[in-house]
Amino acid sequence: MAWIDPGLTLTGRIVRLEPLSMDHLDALREATRDGDLGDRLWWTSTPNPERMADDIAGKLAARDAGRMVPFVCVRLADEQVVGVTTYYDLEPSVPRLEIGYTWTRDSCQGTGTNPDSKRLLIAHAMEELGCQRVGLRTKWTNQQSRAAIERLGFRRDGVLRGYARHANGVLDDAVVYSLLSHEWPAVRRRLEDRVARHLS
């Protein structure tokens, strides 16, 4: 039996995280065209529309192998598909996991979808799965992502030099962050406040 139910759905105040499937292909292609994310943000894991089917297939294969639990993020107000996020690097013996491969359509950035998504994912990991550590990582060149992770309250563990290669061939470092279980209550309050501000 899988440690994390691959059919898991999490519902928050702004978004719903539901299991990724190939049924989301057209909506995800449209989402990346919002701001040309797949081409403009070359330093992120956002696929361009032409690669979206392969990206989904890869995540579903990782899910079936027990290595990943991928979600589509849907905005509750209008059922618009916002983007993708995942649980990965799953280690039930600790237990610990990482949250990543996350991207959000351009017009939804800064609207509370990401804080609500992270609140749902971290709460489930810490409170339901008993995780002692939740990790996040990003590329060194993705300064926007690094700033967002640090605003969440995650601590920087270190930099893995020459760790990943972008789709355009550029070699980059990875910046690794973590949140431990005893740090979660303070971060939860911060995330709840951020979500509430977008609802007021």
From TrEMBL:
| Domain N-acetyltransferase, chain residue ranges per copy | 15-182
Q: Is the keyword Acyltransferase in the record? A: yes
Q: Name one Pfam family in it.
A: Acetyltransf_3
Keywords attached to this Swiss-Prot or TrEMBL record, sorted alphabetically, are:
Acyltransferase, Transferase
The source's domain of life comes to: Bacteria
Q: Name one GO molecular function term.
A: acyltransferase activity, transferring groups other than amino-acyl groups
UniProt EC number: 2.3.1.-
Which InterPro entries does the record associate with it? Acyl_CoA_acyltransferase, GNAT_dom
Stated name of the protein: Ribosomal N-acetyltransferase YdaF
